[in-house]
């Protein structure tokens, strides 16, 4: 087995176990066992559990594949692009709401998990903030705190992901992703296109 294949098997095993059991309850021994590798082999590739969590869970949510797939479709039309980003993000993560709850619970109790989990919004916010800065440079949107705006944008999407299966959710939120995305994009478009410099 090549080093790359071994590494991929460990990452896939870790992804499954971290999602099923959470960070604290998943041991590196269990991951090595599921991947069919020696425990020492796992440490040679990743050194510790936090590095493995970063490469499996964090990179899975904010992978270059996720960003590259979106980047090549961006047109610098704010409405179209925010709609695309929101839809792709929701479709990728809508069935992971139970995982979100597991990690949030653990993050509240474990500073290490909290630090690792916070890498996810950082990658997302950096991506969207850079896009908005580019639009501003091209005089297509007004100025603003693009990091904060990006944080708020993904926070709304994450709220939808986390709560959409609660029965009471449907009293205040639309049933369809499309309807939610339209309202969300309207909100941010109104803010970002206010006083556009021409």
Dominant shape: globular
> What is the distance, rounded to the nearest whole angstrom, between the alpha carbons of the first and last residues?
59 Å
Just give the CATH class of the largest domain: Mainly Alpha
Radius of gyration: 19 Å
CATH architecture name of the largest domain? Orthogonal Bundle
Structural class per helix/strand content? Answer: mainly alpha
Number of strands: 0
**Mean pLDDT across all residues, rounded?**
85
| Major beta-sheet overview | none
Return the string of H and E elements: HHHHHHHHHHHH
| CATH topology (fold) name of the largest domain | Tetracycline Repressor, domain 2
- Uncertain ranges: none
In percent, how much strand structure appears in the residues? under 5%
Question: What's the helix count?
Answer: 12
Total individual domains: 2
Keywords: DNA-binding, Repressor
DNA-binding region: 27-46
Pfam families: TetR_N
Domain HTH tetR-type: 4-64
Task: Summarize the structure in words.
Residues 27-46 bind DNA. By secondary structure, the protein is mainly α. The chain is 75% helix and 0% strand. The protein contains 12 helices and no strands. It has helices spanning 3-21, 28-35, 39-46, 49-61, 64-71, 78-93, 97-109, 111-117, 119-137, 146-163, 169-172, 177-192. The model has no long low-confidence stretch (mean pLDDT 85).
């Amino acid at each position: 087995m090549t080093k790359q294949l071994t590494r991929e098997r460990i990452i896939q095993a870790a992804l499954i176990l971290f999602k099923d059991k959470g960070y604290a309850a998943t041991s590196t021994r269990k991951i090595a066992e599921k991947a069919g590798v020696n425990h020492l082999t796992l440490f040679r590739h990743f050194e510790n559990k936090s590095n493995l969590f970063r490469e499996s869970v964090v990179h899975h949510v904010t992978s270059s594949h996720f960003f590259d797939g979106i980047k090549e479709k961006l047109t610098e039309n704010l409405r179209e692009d925010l709609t695309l980003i929101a839809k792709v993000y929701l479709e990728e993560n809508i069935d992971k709401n139970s995982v979100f709850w597991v990690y949030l619970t653990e993050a509240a109790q474990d500073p290490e998990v909290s630090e690792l989990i916070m890498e996810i919004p950082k990658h997302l916010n950096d991506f969207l903030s850079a896009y908005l800065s580019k639009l501003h440079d091209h005089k297509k949107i007004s100025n603003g705190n693009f990091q904060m705006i990006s944080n708020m944008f993904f926070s709304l999407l994450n709220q939808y992901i986390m709560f959409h299966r609660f029965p009471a959710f449907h009293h205040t939120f639309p049933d369809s992703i499309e309807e939610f995305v339209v309202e969300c994009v309207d909100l941010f478009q109104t803010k970002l296109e206010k006083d556009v410099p021409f």
